[in-house]
Amino acid sequence: MIHSKVKQIANDIKVMKIRGAGKIARATAKALKIQAENSHAKNSKNLFTEIKAVSKLLLGTRPTAVSLPNAVRYITFDLSPDSDSDELKRTVINRAEKFISLSRQAVKRIGEVGARRIADGDTILTHCNSSCALSVIKTAFRQGKDISVWTTESRPRRQGLISVKELSKAGIPTTLVVDSAVRFYMRKIDKVVVGADSIAANGAVVNKIGTSQLALIAHEARALFFVAAESYKFHPQTLVGELVEIEERDATEVVNPKEFPGIKIRNPAFDVTPPEYIDLIITEKGIIPPQAAFTLLEGFRLEELEGS
Ligand code: RUB
C-alpha cells in the first residue's frame, strides 16, 4: 500500500507545489524514505513491490527533469526482492538520506564554484526560478561583489516572481522584466545564469521555456551564458541517443480556453538550448564546457539503463 504522505508528495510535484528540478529530486528521495519507514509489508518481496510502485508513481508526475529518475535510480537500482526485509528498508532509507544531503551540498558547492566566474560590477540576467542559478548569484553577492540582477517573469507560471522575492530578500538589487523585453535590455547584461532540468550527452541544456531565446539573444549581444546544474541533471539515456521528453502542460495555464473557442493553445514547459550557445556549465564537480558533458555521464553503467 502506498503511504498517504507519498501520494501527497507525488501530487504536489504534479501540480507544481513542489517544483524546480533539484527540489523535485529531493522530494522524490523523501517519498521513497517515507514509504520504507512506514511500510507494513510482511516480507521483502512485498516491500520491493511497494518501492517499485512508489517509484512508478513518482516517475509519472513530470517527465522532463531527469533529476527525478536519477534520484529513483540512485536509491533503487540494485535492490533485490530476495534480500532481507530489514536490510532492504535500511538501504532505501540510507540512500534516500544520502541523496538529499549530497543534493543540498551540491547546490551550495555550485554557488561557491560559480561565484568565481562572477565579477565585481556584473549585471546578471536569470530566468524562471533555479536554486542553482540563485546559489551562484547569492554567493557572489555575499562575497561582497557589487552585482545587480535582472529577472524574467517566466510566463506562464511566473516563477520569476519567486526569484525576485528571493533575490530582494538577500538584499540584491533586482529588476523584473517580461519575457519579451529580454532583447531590448540585453545590452545591459554581462552574464546570463540559468539552471537546468536535463543536460544531454552533447551538452544541450533543457530548461524552462524561453531559455533558448535568452541564449540566442545573449550570443548576439556577446553576453556570457552560464548554466548551473548538479551532476544528477545529466541525462544518461541521451548517451544512447534518446531525446529528452518536453512536458506540455495544460492550456489553462496560458489563458481561459473557453474564452477562445476553436483556438489551439500550446504550452510547452521547457525548451532545448544547443551547446554552441552555452559558455560554461557549472557543476558541483567543477566547471565544464558543454562539449564535455558526456564526461559527467561516463560513470553511468549502460546496463543500469535497461528497463529504466
Ligand atoms: C523550473 C526550472 C528550473 C530548473 C532548475 O521549472 O526550469 O530552471 O528546474 O532548477 P518548473 P533548480 O518550475 O517547471 O519546475 O536549479 O532549482 O534545480
Describe the structure.
The chain is an alpha/beta fold. 41% of the residues lie in helices and 13% in strands. It has helices at 4-14, 21-38, 44-59, 67-76, 85-115, 131-142, 160-169, 182-185, 211-221, 302-305; strands at residues 123-126, 148-152, 174-177, 191-194, 198-199, 205-208, 224-228, 270-273, 280-283, 286-288. The mean pLDDT is 96. Bound molecules: ribulose-1,5-diphosphate (RUB). Ribulose-1,5-diphosphate is lined by residues 19-22, 65, 128, 130-132, 159, 195-197, 207-208, 269. Residues 19-22, 65, 128, 130-132, 159, 195-197, 207-208, 269 line the site of ribulose-1,5-diphosphate.
Estimated share of beta-strand residues = 5-15%
Tally of alpha and pi helices: 10
**Residue-averaged pLDDT, rounded?**
96
List unreliable stretches of 5+ residues.
Answer: none
